[in-house]
Amino acid sequence: MIEEPKAEYRTGIGTDIHRTVAGRKLMLGGVHVPYPIGLAGHSDGDVVLHAIIDALLGASGMGDIGTLFPDTDARWKDCDSKELVYIVKEKLEENRWEVVNVDVTIHTEQPRLEPLKGQIKRCIAGLLGIDFTAANVKAKTNEGLGEIGAGEAMAATAVALLRKKQRRGL
After folding, report:
1. Which of 58, 117, 129, 150 has its CA at a distance of 20 to 30 angstroms from the CA of residue 98?
2. Higher pLDDT, residue 100 or 5
3. Is residue 56 part of a domain?
4. CATH code at 66?
């Protein structure tokens, strides 16, 4: 009797935080959020996609966002973080990893994200090539505590589950 290979699964966690600044578009999860301030960062400052990237890289054992896209590299200056996600997804596929699901929590006092969570979820699912139900987005306030509570920063925490694709013929 031939034994089938066991599927390999891995989880990863990612976090990111950026200061709020005037004069920048606020991008969260690849979605432009209408708000008078944005996030400082070498790229577009999208804390949601940055946390997801770190979760994916961590689960696959491929390092972290700062190693792959250093803020000392002019190529990534003001870039759209969706492009970074596409690059990471390509690297995952090259290493036979597929995204099973992603769960992300956005930490911000303002703006209220309830009306935008579905749009952010849809964007994340589309970027990763997963079903809408395999992406989850939550938003939490900091109850007025710390830099996030004072509106001086926004953060995100993400968890990702990956599955190794089996080689054909096995």
Report:
1. 117
2. 100
3. yes
4. 3.30.1330.50
